[in-house]
Design goal:
Elements lengths: L6 H4 L2 H12 L11 H6 L6 H13 L6 H8 L6 H5 L6 H15 L4 H13 L3 H14 L3 H5 L5 H9 L14 E3 L7 E6 L3 H5 L2 H12 L2 E5 L8 H4 L4 H22 L3 E4 L2 H7 L2 H4 L7 H10 E3 H5 L9 E3 L2 E4 L3 H6 L5 H8 L3 E3 L14 H4 L1 H16 L5 E4 L2 H8 L6 E3 H8 L13 E3 L1
Parallel strand pairs: 2-3, 2-4, 4-5, 7-8, 7-9, 9-10
Antiparallel strand pairs: 1-3, 6-11
The protein binds iron/sulfur cluster (2 copies).
Length: 440
């Protein structure tokens, strides 16, 4: 694609980066066929190619964002399916991240939209605040129906509907500490305990620690780590995202220097995509660029890390058919497609892949709150495809997808690592009815 940025514009390194990305796009439109919003809405402006044109026009003309571009960029899930499809290697992720930051700096959203985004940015990344917000949401739930009629308050209704009826107690695994390997130590990793996941489903990190310890891997939960910053990053709140990234880089670099790390293990693929991008996000910060690149290189999804270990024979044989839902951040963001399925099959599960596996379930961070209608259409399509497999349960590697799919699916939705922990000697995950396993 030809561009006409001036030398002055290109002196801004963010613009220069976006220009490089834009020039790679050859307008072929292959990406439109696999874009969930284009598939759902059928509007070229809600396709990757359409959004690329809108972003180009906004940046080239040095214009503040307007209502039209905000509408179509807000509808983008950042699922990155377009990046998997694109034959020209267009880095849509970095382009849309730049566009979102530009929108945040130049566009004044309507008051209610601004307030809802502020509330999300203030609560979701902080487990204590998020826990308190979920308790409040329980009180507000009976009013969800009333609010549904007010279009400006649809995100609030979606928030109330998504809030679980009860919140599990906080897990000791979420606190900073060291979990010593059983037997001879074969490795040492840091675990990102995360923000929303540690509140909604603390059992995921508990299963991870148990499994890794049994496999001889010491797990540290470093003092000072917190939310990866993805939630605010996708809202264009760059300063907040970079502050979160720096805090984590500091916490993990301390661990690298003190005891060495074989990996930084992440159990939510949405966080993994962002942490693997820290090196890029902090590239202009001389104090952090090198450290952030080291951290990104060490970041591994739990299945990616487990696949590097020499696993024993499973201790139970779970006679179950599992529909594996590959989160967008797993398959498109991190290009991890093989390992979760292979690990599940090796552990004795029969793995089925639902149709249209490349399409997002509509969760996408805060998307199911901010764009509830498109999100619900994508969720229903996803659940229909999953249920058509005839599987007994769903396995996936991202808390957002678990919450989204479980909100309507009739079958249990379980994190992949919880199933692996079970097969290798841990407790059976909640919600799976007996009898399903035979001892080996
Ligand atoms: S990130 Fe997903 S929703 Fe956004 S343009 Fe690409 S394919 Fe479409
Ligand atoms: S597939 Fe790639 S090159 Fe083709 S229109 Fe989409 S982004 Fe551009």
């Amino acid at each position: 694609m030809q561009t006409t940025f001036s030398p002055t514009q290109l002196a801004d390194p963010h613009v220069a980066e976006s220009e490089k990305i834009l020039r790679k796009c050859v307008h072929c439109g292959f990406c439109t066929a696999t874009c969930p919003t284009y598939v759902t809405l059928g509007n070229e402006l809600d396709s990757p190619r359409g959004r690329i044109y809108l972003i180009k026009d906004m940046l080239e003309n040095g214009r503040p964002a307007d209502k039209e571009i905000v509408t179509h960029i807000d509808r983008c899930l950042s699922c990155l399916s377009c990046m998997t499809t694109c034959p020209s290697g267009v880095n849509y992720m970095h382009l849309v991240d730049h566009a979102r930051a530009h929108i945040e700096q130049t566009y004044k959203r309507p008051l209610v939209d601004r307030l809802i985004r502020q509330v999300l940015a203030f609560t979701l990344p902080y487990p204590r605040r998020f826990r308190a917000a979920l308790s409040l949401a329980k009180l507000g739930r009976p009013f969800a129906g009333l609010l549904a009629g007010m279009s400006a308050l649809k995100p609030l209704t979606a928030m109330l509907k998504l809030a679980p009826a009860s919140v599990p107690a906080a897990s000791p695994v979420s606190r900073p500490g060291r979990h010593v390997a059983n037997g001879e130590r074969r490795g040492r990793v840091a675990l990102l305990t995360g923000c929303a996941q540690s509140v909604l489903e603390p059992g995921i990190n508990e299963a991870t620690v148990r499994l890794l310890n049994r496999l001889g891997v010491e797990v540290v939960v470093p003092e000072g780590e917190g939310c990866c910053g993805a939630l605010v990053h996708h809202m264009g709140k760059e300063d907040a995202a970079l502050a979160a990234a720096r805090k984590n880089v500091d916490a993990w670099v301390r661990q690298i220097e003190q005891g060495g790390l074989d990996a930084i293990v992440i159990t939510a693929s949405g966080c993994g995509t962002t942490i693997k991008d820290y090196g890029f996000m902090l590239r202009f910060d001389p104090a952090y660029a090198e450290k952030a690149a080291r951290v990104s290189a060490l970041a591994k999804d739990i299945t990616e890390f487990l696949a590097t270990l020499d696993l024993p024979e499973p201790s139970v044989k779970p006679c179950l058919t599992v529909a594996y839902h590959s989160a967008c951040s797993m398959q498109h963001g991190q290009k991890i497609t093989r390992q979760p399925k292979e690990l599940l099959a090796r552990a004795g599960f029969v793995v089925k892949e639902p149709r249209e596996g490349h399409l997002c379930c509509g969760s996408a961070g805060t998307y199911n709150i901010l764009q509830p209608e498109i999100s619900a259409r994508l969720r229903d399509r996803k659940v229909k495809n999953i249920e058509a497999t005839g599987a007994a349960l769903v396995a996936t590697g991202n808390i957002g997808c678990i919450t989204q799919i479980a909100s309507t699916a009739k079958l249990p939705v379980v994190h992949t690592v919880a199933l692996l922990d079970w097969a290798y000697g841990g407790p059976k995950p909640k919600g799976i009815a007996p009898p399903h396993a035979t001892a080996q």
